[in-house]
C-alpha cells in the first residue's frame, strides 16, 4: 500500500455527528460530509467512532536493557493495536534515560519503529538514585525535546531534591511527573493495605503513603510556582488533595490508570501475580473516587502505566513477582467499560483524557487539538458496539501480563493511523515494512 | 480433600471431621506398633524453603507412621537457594512422582500459587506461608483444646461458647490467622491481644475482638490463652520500645498466671522466648499444653495426610 | 429395584444365638475369649454375640471394636472413608482367642485388613471369624468359622444388613444392583 491518501467514509465523531475524514500526506486535510475521494484509499468507517490518536503519558518500553519484556518496536505495536499514536517512554530503562544522548537514542528507536511516536521522558535524578539531578536541561534542549521528567518506579522522596527539580524545570516549561510513594511507609509492601492484605498476610501499601507525598508535592509546587504531574493516582484521599490543590490554583495535573478505574484489591485473593501492580489495586471506594475524579476533571488524563514483564517474573509466589501490568492494548476498552458504559463521561471526554490533555501536559508541539483540519493525521477508528473476550491473542506486545485475560471487554480498535499511515486496518496490525515505507513517504513529502 | 491451604475454607463439619480423624490417629499412636500401612506406596515431599525443624519433623513423623515414603527437600544448600524458581522445583517434584507436597515458604500465598499453577498434580499442604496461614498448627491447637475440654468424648464436638485470647504479634502471625478462622468455624470466640502496632488495623468482618490490655482480657476469664512468639527482628523496628516493656504489658508472667481461672489453659506454638512472652512457670505449669501440642501435631498431620491421600482424587 | 428379605428379626436373633453357642463350643468355654466387631454393624453384632455368650456361660466376655480403615488396600479406589474408633478391652489381646465379627463376608479383604490391624495391637493365641451372612465371592484364602446364613449371590446383587441400633429396623435383604 503506497497510497498516502485516505478517506475515512462516514465516521462518527466524538460529538456524535457523522463526517468523512480526509488524510493526505500525514495530515488531516478535510472533515465534512460527502468529501470527494480524489483517488484516496477509501476506508468504510460507517458506524465507527473516530477519535484523535491516543496519547499515553506513561509507557514502559523496556528498551534498552530489558528487551526480554518489551522493545520499542513491540511496545509501539502494542500501542498501535490499542489505538495509540504517541507514547511517552518512561526513563527506567538500563541504562536509565538520564542524559541527552540516551533520550535521543530512545527517540530514534521510535522513529525506526513507525508504529507510534515515542516521546522520551527523562529521569529526574541520575540513575533514578534519588541523589543528584540528572541533566534535565540537556535533555530538554536535545532533539528529543524532553519536557516531562520522572523517576517513575521510584518516588523522588527527598523533599529538598523535589523542590529543586520543580524549580529547575521552570527554565524550559518542564514538569515533574511524580511516582507518589513514601518509601518508608511502603517497605516490603505487596498490595493495598486493608482487610484483604491482612487476610492474605501480604504487607500493606497504605493509601497514606501516596497521599502524604502528593500533599507535600502540591505545596512545594505552589511554593516554587512550578508544574507537577501526579502519576497513577489510586486513592480517594489523593483525589481530594488534588481537587483542593486545583481549587487553590496550583499547577498540578494528574493521571489515573485504566486498571485503577476497573479493578479492586480483592483480586489478590487468587495470589495470581498478574494483579500485582504498583501502586496496588485499591478498594471499591477508591475506584469510585478516581472515577468521579476523572469525570469532574480533578484527574486530567488516563495513562496506561503499560509495564511488561516476562512470564518468569509473574509465574511465581506473589511476594516474589514483579509489579506491573500491560495496558496499551486494553486501555480504550477499559475506559469504555469503566467510564462510558457507566455514564460518567462522554466520548468527547474520552478524546480529551486519552489524547488531547496528555499531549498538552507533555507539551507535544502542534498536538492536543483533537481531530481538526491541519492537525497531524493521528486517528483511531473504534467499534463501540463490538465486544470481545480479551485473550493473549488480543495482545501485540512481547509480554502477556494482562489482568484482563479471560475477561469480556467492550469495543474494538478497527483502524489506527499514525501520521497518516495505517498501523492497524481491519483490526489487524500492518506489517512493519509497510509501516516504515509509509512513514518514509510521509516524511519525504512533508 | 484436594489441598489444605487455609483454614478459612473449612466448614464446621469439615473441621470436626479432620479433628475426629486426628482422634483416631492419636489412638493408633498408643499401640505397640505405631506404624500404619495406610499410605504405603505414596510419596510425601517436605518442601521447606524456610528452616523449621519442628514442623518438618512433625510432618515427617506423621507421613512415616502412615507408611508413606518421605522425601525432604530443604532449600538450604540446594538449587532452590541458588535461585531456582518455585515452578522448576514443582516440576521436578512432579516428575519424581510426589503425591503430596508439604510446603513451608517465606512468601505468603506460595502454596496457593503451587496448587493453582498446574505445575504439579500433587495435593498441597500449607505448612506455613509467610505471614499468611499455618493451617495444621490451628488444627492441632483446636484438637488440643477440644481434648482438654472434652477428653475421651471429644469426637463430633466443636468448641462452642469458649473464648480464646491470642496474645502477641498478631500482625505477622500465620498461627493467629489460621486459628481465627478455625476457631470461628468451631463456635469459639477469639480475642486478639497485643500492642496496637502488632494488631492489624483492618479487621472488618473478622470473627475476632481486639484488646490492647492483657489484664482486662484475663479479668474477663478466657478459656484459653495462646501466647505467640515475639520474633527478635520486631524488636528493632519500633513496634514496641524494648523487650522489657513488652513483657511487662503483654507477657504471661507469674502474677498474671496466678490470676487465670483454674481451668484456663495456656498454649504456645513454640519455640518459646521464656521470660519474654511467657514465664517459665507458665510454660511448665499443668495448665500449659505446650508438650501436648507437639504430640497432637503428629496426630493432626496424620489426619490431614490421610484425608489428602486416601480416597479417589476429587478435582 | 427388587428387594427380597432373606432374614427377618427373629431369624437374625436365632442365627446370633447359634453363633454364640458355637463359639463357646469351639473354645471349650468362655476362657480367654475376646469378641471384636468390625465397624459399623459388626460392632453391634459383636456386642450382641458377647451378651449371648456371657448369658450362656455365666462369665462376662470382653467385647470391643476393631477399625480396619487404615489397613485397607482399596483406599485410593473409593471415596475417602472416615475411620471409626477402635476399642480394645482392658485385658488386651495377648494370648486371647479373638473372635472377629462382621455383618457380611464377601471378598475377604476387610478381614485381611483386620488381621493386619490385630497384629499391630497384640498377639492373640488364635483368631476366629464370625459373619452374619456369607455371600461368597472370596478373593483371598479366608473362610469364616461361624456363619449365620450362607447366601449365594450374584456379584451384581447387593446385600443390606439392617440392625435395630443403627438402622431402626432389623432385616437382611438382597437387592438387584446395577442401577
TrEMBL record, chain A:
Main EC class the enzyme belongs to: hydrolase
Names of the cofactor(s)? Zn(2+)
Q: Which residues bind Zn(2+) 2?
A: 152, 179, 232
Arranged from A to Z, the UniProt key words for this protein are:
Hydrolase, Metal-binding, Pyrimidine biosynthesis, Zinc
Q: Where does Zn(2+) 1 bind?
A: 58, 60, 152, 305
Reactions accelerated catalytically:
(S)-dihydroorotate + H2O = N-carbamoyl-L-aspartate + H(+)
- E.C. number(s) listed in UniProt: 3.5.2.3
Q: Which protein, by its recorded name, is this?
A: Dihydroorotase
Automatic annotation (TrEMBL), chain B:
What name is this protein filed under?
Aspartate carbamoyltransferase
Q: Which SUPFAM superfamilies match?
A: Aspartate/ornithine carbamoyltransferase (SSF53671)
Q: Which family does this protein fall into?
A: Belongs to the aspartate/ornithine carbamoyltransferase superfamily. ATCase family.
Going by the UniProt record, its keywords in alphabetical order are:
Pyrimidine biosynthesis, Transferase
Q: Name one GO biological process term.
A: 'de novo' pyrimidine nucleobase biosynthetic process
Any one of the GO CC terms: cytosol
Report domain Aspartate/ornithine carbamoyltransferase Asp/Orn-binding positions: 160-308
Pfam families linked to this entry? OTCace, OTCace_N
**In which residues is L-aspartate bound?**
82, 174, 229
Automatic annotation (TrEMBL), chain C:
Chain span(s) of sequence motif PRPP-binding: 98-110
EC main group: transferase
Q: Which residues form the Phosphoribosyltransferase domain?
A: 5-145
Record GO biological process: regulation of DNA-templated transcription
Q: Which GO terms describe its molecular function?
A: uracil phosphoribosyltransferase activity
EC id: 2.4.2.9
What this protein catalyses is:
UMP + diphosphate = 5-phospho-alpha-D-ribose 1-diphosphate + uracil
Which InterPro entries does this UniProt record tie to the protein?
Answer: PRTase-like, PRTase_dom, PyrR, PyrR_bifunctional
Q: Which keywords appear in this protein's UniProt record, sorted alphabetically?
A: Glycosyltransferase, Transcription, Transcription regulation, Transferase
Q: What does this protein do?
A: Also displays a weak uracil phosphoribosyltransferase activity which is not physiologically significant. Regulates the transcription of the pyrimidine nucleotide (pyr) operon in response to exogenous pyrimidines.
Family that this chain belongs to = Belongs to the purine/pyrimidine phosphoribosyltransferase family. PyrR subfamily.
Looking up HAMAP family in the UniProt record yields:
PyrR (MF_01219)
Q: What is this protein called?
A: Bifunctional protein PyrR
Amino acid at each position: 500500500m503506497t497510497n498516502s491518501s485516505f478517506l475515512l467514509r462516514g465516521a462518527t465523531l466524538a460529538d456524535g455527528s457523522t463526517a468523512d475524514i480526509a488524510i493526505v500526506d500525514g495530515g488531516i486535510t478535510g472533515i465534512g460530509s460527502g468529501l470527494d475521494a480524489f483517488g484516496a484509499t477509501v476506508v468504510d468507517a460507517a458506524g465507527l467512532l473516530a477519535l484523535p490518536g491516543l496519547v499515553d503519558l506513561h509507557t514502559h518500553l523496556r528498551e534498552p536493557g530489558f528487551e526480554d519484556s518489551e522493545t520499542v518496536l513491540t511496545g509501539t505495536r502494542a500501542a498501535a493495536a490499542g489505538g495509540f499514536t504517541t507514547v511517552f517512554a518512561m526513563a527506567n530503562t538500563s541504562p536509565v534515560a538520564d542524559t541527552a544522548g540516551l533520550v535521543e537514542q530512545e527517540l530514534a528507536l521510535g522513529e525506526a519503529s513507525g508504529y507510534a511516536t515515542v516521546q522520551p521522558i527523562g529521569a529526574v535524578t541520575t540513575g533514578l538514585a534519588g541523589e543528584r539531578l540528572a541533566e534535565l536541561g540537556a535533555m530538554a534542549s536535545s532533539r528529543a525535546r524532553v519536557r516531562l521528567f520522572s523517576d517513575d518506579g521510584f518516588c523522588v522522596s527527598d523533599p529538598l531534591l523535589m523542590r529543586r527539580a520543580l524549580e529547575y524545570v521552570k527554565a524550559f516549561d518542564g514538569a515533574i511527573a511524580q511516582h507518589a510513594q513514601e518509601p518508608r511507609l511502603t517497605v516490603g509492601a505487596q498490595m493495598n493495605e486493608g482487610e484483604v492484605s491482612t487476610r492474605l498476610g501480604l504487607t500493606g501499601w497504605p493509601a497514606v503513603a501516596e497521599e502524604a507525598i502528593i500533599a507535600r508535592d502540591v505545596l512545594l509546587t505552589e511554593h516554587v510556582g512550578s508544574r507537577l504531574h501526579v502519576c497513577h493516582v489510586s486513592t480517594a484521599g489523593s483525589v481530594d488533595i488534588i481537587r483542593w490543590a486545583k481549587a487553590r490554583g496550583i499547577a498540578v495535573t494528574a493521571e489515573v490508570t485504566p486498571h485503577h478505574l476497573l479493578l479492586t484489591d480483592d483480586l489478590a485473593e487468587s495470589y495470581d501475580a498478574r494483579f500485582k501492580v504498583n501502586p496496588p489495586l485499591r478498594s471499591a471506594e477508591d475506584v469510585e473516587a478516581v472515577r468521579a475524579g476523572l469525570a469532574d476533571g480533578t484527574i486530567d488524563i488516563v495513562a496506561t502505566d503499560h509495564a511488561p514483564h516476562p512470564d518468569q517474573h509473574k509465574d511465581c509466589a506473589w511476594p516474589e513477582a514483579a509489579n506491573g501490568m500491560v495496558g496499551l492494548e486494553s486501555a480504550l476498552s477499559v475506559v469504555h467499560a469503566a467510564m462510558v458504559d457507566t455514564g460518567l463521561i462522554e466520548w468527547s471526554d474520552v478524546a480529551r483524557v486519552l489524547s488531547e490533555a496528555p499531549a498538552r501536559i507533555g507539551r507535544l508541539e502542534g498536538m492536543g487539538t483533537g481531530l481538526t483540519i491541519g492537525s497531524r493525521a493521528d486517528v483511531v477508528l473504534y467499534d463501540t458496539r463490538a465486544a470481545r473476550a480479551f485473550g493473549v491473542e488480543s495482545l501485540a506486545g512481547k509480554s502477556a501480563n494482562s489482568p484482563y485475560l479471560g475477561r469480556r471487554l467492550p469495543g474494538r480498535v478497527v483502524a489506527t493511523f499514525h501520521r497518516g499511515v495505517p498501523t492497524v486496518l481491519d483490526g489487524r496490525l500492518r506489517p512493519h515494512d509497510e509501516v516504515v515505507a509509509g512513514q518514509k513517504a510521509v516524511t519525504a513529502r512533508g | 480433600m484436594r489441598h489444605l491451604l487455609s483454614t478459612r475454607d473449612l466448614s464446621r463439619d469439615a473441621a470436626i471431621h479432620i479433628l475426629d480423624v486426628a482422634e483416631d490417629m492419636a489412638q493408633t499412636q498408643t499401640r505397640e506398633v505405631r506404624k500404619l500401612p495406610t499410605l504405603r506406596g505414596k510419596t510425601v515431599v517436605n518442601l521447606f524453603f524456610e528452616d523449621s525443624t519442628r514442623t518438618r519433623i512433625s510432618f515427617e513423623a506423621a507421613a512415616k507412621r502412615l507408611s508413606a515414603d518421605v522425601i525432604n527437600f530443604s532449600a538450604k544448600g540446594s538449587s532452590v537457594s541458588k535461585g531456582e524458581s518455585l515452578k522448576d522445583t514443582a516440576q521436578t517434584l512432579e516428575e519424581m512422582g510426589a503425591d503430596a507436597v508439604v510446603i513451608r515458604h517465606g512468601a505468603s500465598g506460595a502454596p496457593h500459587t503451587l496448587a493453582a499453577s498446574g505445575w504439579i498434580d500433587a495435593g498441597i499442604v500449607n505448612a506455613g506461608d509467610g505471614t499468611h496461614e499455618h493451617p495444621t498448627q490451628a488444627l492441632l491447637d483446636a484438637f488440643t483444646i477440644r481434648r482438654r475440654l472434652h477428653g475421651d468424648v471429644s469426637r463430633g464436638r466443636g468448641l462452642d461458647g469458649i473464648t480464646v485470647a491470642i496474645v502477641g504479634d498478631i500482625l505477622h502471625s500465620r498461627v493467629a490467622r489460621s486459628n481465627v478462622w478455625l476457631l470461628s468455624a468451631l463456635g469459639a470466640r477469639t480475642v486478639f491481644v497485643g500492642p496496637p502496632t502488632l494488631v492489624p488495623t483492618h479487621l472488618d468482618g473478622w470473627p475476632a475482638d481486639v484488646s490492647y490490655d492483657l489484664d482486662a482480657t484475663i479479668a474477663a476469664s478466657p478459656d484459653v490463652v495462646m501466647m505467640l512468639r515475639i520474633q527478635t527482628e520486631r524488636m528493632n523496628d519500633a513496634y514496641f520500645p524494648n523487650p522489657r516493656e513488652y513483657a511487662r504489658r503483654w507477657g504471661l508472667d507469674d502474677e498474671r498466671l496466678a490470676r487465670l481461672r483454674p481451668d484456663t489453659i495456656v498454649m504456645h506454638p513454640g519455640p518459646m522466648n521464656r521470660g519474654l512472652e511467657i514465664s517459665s512457670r507458665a510454660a511448665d505449669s499443668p495448665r500449659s499444653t505446650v508438650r501436648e501440642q507437639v504430640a497432637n501435631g503428629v496426630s493432626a498431620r496424620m489426619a490431614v495426610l490421610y484425608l489428602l491421600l486416601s480416597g479417589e482424587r476429587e478435582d | 429395584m427388587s428387594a427380597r428379605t432373606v432374614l427377618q428379626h427373629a431369624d437374625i436373633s436365632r442365627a446370633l444365638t447359634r453363633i454364640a453357642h458355637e463359639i463357646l463350643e469351639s473354645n471349650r468355654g468362655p476362657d480367654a475369649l475376646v469378641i471384636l466387631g468390625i465397624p459399623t454393624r459388626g460392632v453391634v453384632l459383636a456386642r450382641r454375640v458377647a451378651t449371648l455368650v456371657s448369658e450362656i456361660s455365666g462369665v462376662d466376655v470382653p467385647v470391643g471394636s476393631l477399625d480396619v480403615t487404615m489397613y485397607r488396600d482399596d483406599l485410593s479406589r473409593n471415596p475417602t472413608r472416615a475411620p471409626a474408633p477402635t476399642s480394645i478391652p482392658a485385658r488386651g489381646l495377648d494370648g486371647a482367642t479373638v473372635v472377629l465379627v462382621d455383618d457380611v463376608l464377601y471378598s475377604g479383604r476387610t478381614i485381611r485388613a483386620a488381621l493386619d490391624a490385630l497384629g499391630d495391637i497384640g498377639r492373640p493365641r488364635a483368631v476366629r471369624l464370625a459373619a452374619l451372612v456369607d455371600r461368597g465371592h472370596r478373593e483371598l484364602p479366608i473362610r469364616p468359622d461361624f456363619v449365620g446364613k450362607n447366601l449365594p449371590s450374584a456379584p451384581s446383587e447387593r446385600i443390606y444388613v439392617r440392625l435395630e441400633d443403627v438402622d431402626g429396623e432389623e432385616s437382611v435383604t438382597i437387592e438387584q444392583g446395577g442401577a
